[in-house]
Request: fold
Amino acid sequence: MISEIIEAINEGQSFLITAHVRLDGDALGSELALYLMLRELGKNVVVYNQDHTPERYRFLPAEQNIIHNISNVEQYDVGIVLDCSDLARVGDEAENIGKIKKLINIDHHVSNNGFCSLKMLDAHASSTGELLFRLIREMRFKMSKDICTNLYAAIITDTGSFRYSSTTNETLFAAGTLVENGADPQWIAENVYENDSPVRLKLLAKALETLSLDMKNKVGSLVVTQKALLEAGASWEHTEGFVDIPRTVRGIEISILYTQRGDNHFKLSLRSKAKANVEKVAKKFGGGGHIHASSCWMKGDIESIKSQIIKAVREL
Amino acid sequence: MISEIIEAINEGQSFLITAHVRLDGDALGSELALYLMLRELGKNVVVYNQDHTPERYRFLPAEQNIIHNISNVEQYDVGIVLDCSDLARVGDEAENIGKIKKLINIDHHVSNNGFCSLKMLDAHASSTGELLFRLIREMRFKMSKDICTNLYAAIITDTGSFRYSSTTNETLFAAGTLVENGADPQWIAENVYENDSPVRLKLLAKALETLSLDMKNKVGSLVVTQKALLEAGASWEHTEGFVDIPRTVRGIEISILYTQRGDNHFKLSLRSKAKANVEKVAKKFGGGGHIHASSCWMKGDIESIKSQIIKAVREL
Reply:
């Protein structure tokens, strides 16, 4: 399969690269690494994203070349859809992009539905960035520093800086090669992890006031109310990473972030460590995800929601 | 030099391994990896530390074998001092340990004073764990899973999970080999980073109330007062990592943690990103460290201390 993808790349002249809405570092780093390679190979290339690049990823080399409108998809020989388990994840232009003669999908999600025939899928890869690393090596293409920076950023954002279970020896060897060829681990980590809005810490201060640690049931949680958002001048996007905080406590296995999205309406993000299965908890309330990371929506006052959750955890 | 160290290891029969007081993951992981190798080689070995192992590192394989008292150092053929730039860093038994016939020092600190003749020093290595990895490979010793776990923990704690500037391609290749041979990145990271006392988050909530962000001078700070420690039931050890929080804000280049150690007496921990030089600031007030991490002590009320610091930063 990989040789057919390489053939399509070699034969095509005009390319559209895209990824999913709600962009993350893996989607963006992968898009831009591929863009830079195709450009160096003398191809015509565009990167199209429905959403704008979050501030923390604007440092990625070539980011300023991303476009947010497309017309006339017939002009492209090949469409490359990255980090998407389903074509619909591309957003409003999914159907349009589906019309491109030759589609290639490169992805690492377990849930991938195989929406096109040319594909490079590996649910054991840490990231789409790691898959692109393999593809580029297979092509014997000499990676520039900018390509390495993009792939390195892709890998660290999808592995939590090599902390998640998706991290393998292959991931670390790929990262080593990227650093050998010019990626700067400290500079990239600084850009990705130390680039928050000041309101995030104001919101965190308020969220920590709600910290509850149920050591008996090994559940820790934080609540972000609409009042807290208002007072901090924040939006719910600023809660990124809050869910990981309660589980930094020894003995806590399940970490929950309750964000209020309306009167008596909460979104729950659940994370677990060790063997606790939060997917089962989320499913009980109509949500889903996987063992270590799931989410669901619940209605009611926060105290009754919390006790329903504790009950569900006890029944695990 | 490395061949002389290997010779000393092969010839010796009885070994004492030690490291510095105020133990960290690099000191402990390195000690225990070396201990396990020497045991497998059929040697008599003890690991001696003055301090007890912090809770977060008690998961390290063979940790329960560490001893905290020594007598009769004449019984040891070789003493191996790890992660110490100076023999005195070992603590109260330094002089005693200095009497062991053959001393070996393996260390990566720039400030190493070369206190013994047999040494393996490299200030460009991320960690003593990385140096031991090189030594063990050079000996062609087949690393067990437990040795790999110890070395992996050593490397991640000294690189902030591959985020600090000390991270090189060699560091990542070593980590990849350790994972290939059995180290589990997620399990180790969970133990190291998600193993805090519950009071730490209570203290963090209080510290965040003091957050100050001076965007003009790019300085962010937190204050931990004795009152906050008392109210949270915490001690100043629980402030570990707090200094890194203000610099997660976009535009902040210098991060300062003020911890009150007495009436009108504060310890300052300073961190920087990008090109800001906090060593210069700390030196102005009789402290020291290096460009990106320094500390000093100051007397006075917190507001006057803060304005002295801002003045020093402006003069950089």
User: Anything to note?
Assistant: Chain A touches chain B through 49 residues (CB under 8 Å).
